[in-house]
Amino acid sequence: MRNVSFTHRSGFLALFLAVSACGTAMEGEVDEVESISAVQQPAVIGGRKVAAIFIQFKNGASPDYTIEQVYDRLFGNADSTDKFFREASYGKMHLTGHNHTDGDFYGWYELDVGTPVCAQHANYVELGRAMAAQAGGYVEANYQHTMFFLAEVPAGCGDGAGALFSNTYFYHAEDSGTMAHELGHNLGLNHADLLNCADAAGNWVSMSPSCAQPNLPKCANSGQLNPGNTSCWQEYGDSFSTMGGQFLHYNAPEKARLGWFEPENTATVSASGTSIVSVKPIELASDGVQRLVVPIPGGDETYQVEYRQPLGLFDSQRFTAGSPVASGIVVHRGTLEGTPTRIVNMTPSVPINVANYPANVSREALPWGHTFVDRDANLAISLLGVSPSEATVKVTRGTAAAPIPACADAPSHWYLKCGATDATSMNAATKLTEDNGALVLTYQVSQSIATQNGGDVCTLVQTHTAGQWDPCTQYWVPAGGTQASGETKTLSPDLAGFRITYPAPGNYKASLSASGALSVTPAP
């Protein structure tokens, strides 16, 4: 199995995107989240019957792979395509055969033709189908997927794989991920792409008006913006989906299209104001929210948020708890149909080339403590906290009367309270990780000034007042401060309590250091 970009041809599915327009949404503080179901096709569940037909040419080369190799990658190996579907669907879907529980295999069948050419590809497939029916008892109606394996690439065909309707085509004993990709097309999925966005000045950003257009051009070359630094979409650019560039779980919009989520696994935030949602990892079955939908005003597009952790066999082979994605959230832009999907590049200092950004280092995820702001859609998405079990996501929607500021204070607002005296305001985000069996809480905060008389117990307290604005040349802004650790027993609503002893009455600066110590020094 390869941890590189897949080698496959188009899935032959049409692409439709709607125009995003400015909209309304933000008065008052609300927390309105509802469950929705957005599956646009019948759920893909149960056993999917698969046949594999092997074709060689009388005057062509001998096969350089065996039926046994294909069987292993499709069913037999620990990381087989069948096991991928079982895990990614939470046990709701698997592969099988009509005659055997681990697929039905027909061939090799030899076609008496001249030099194979791509223009006759469809004829070769139908001849192979007929020979499998006559010699092996193959009945097309018994299968939902028929996979054709040719011993060589016909002249003029690309050296990869492809899918059309219920059929898939291969010229090699492809890896399990490529098979899962092509079968994904059969199931109704298109490619998982990447948005490489530029603003009017040619700066790389996460989102811009030009990037939200339905006629967005494809990137001129992989991983680069178009000439002149204009917005484009990169095919296969999503590092976190088998329909993109890496053999990982399908992303949340794709799983929703396949009907693998229960109603409680999807929530939507469409009310103005602020909503805070706990999002569970996508890799394991859950009774919580695993897909957060944020409708974009003025059309049928949405932002869809998911949380990824190195759980299960397939995702844990591609990234670790220390990888950027495990401390961030993944956001896709697209319609509720879930295909094609386009991941938003949340750290757009450089355009992403998926070949150079495998899942363990890829920076498409919105980092912990950061904010994504779409000023044209009048909304912001923030990552307030992460732990091994959930991500705390804040969605802020503005209104025409109170739009999202030019630079939004996305994280919740916090302050350090010591006794009866409050410090000046600061922003904070939390990150809970595991270290040798112990839970470690990390804060991201700014310094504060506290006025005290003697010793007090200090706590971090959440508010919902206006925060500090930062000039944002891009569409994501940091939550502020440095990373620092502190002890805690609970995460929300009250964070840690610390006892501070002051040497004498006066004004002091209280801060959390990068090493995790809470300290106070006399304020100037």
Protein model, in words:
The protein has 524 residues and is mainly beta. The chain has three domains: 34-42 and 190-397, no CATH class; 46-186; 413-522, no CATH class. The protein is 11% helix and 33% strand. The chain is built from six helices and 30 strands. Strands 12, 18, 19, 20, 21, 22, 23, 25, 26, 27 and 28 form an eleven-stranded mixed sheet that branches. Strands 1, 8, 9, 10, 11, 13, 14, 15, 16 and 17 form a ten-stranded mixed sheet that branches. The longest helix is centred in the first third of the chain and has 16 residues, at 121-136. The radius of gyration is 26 Å and the shape is globular. The termini are far apart. 49% of the residues are buried.
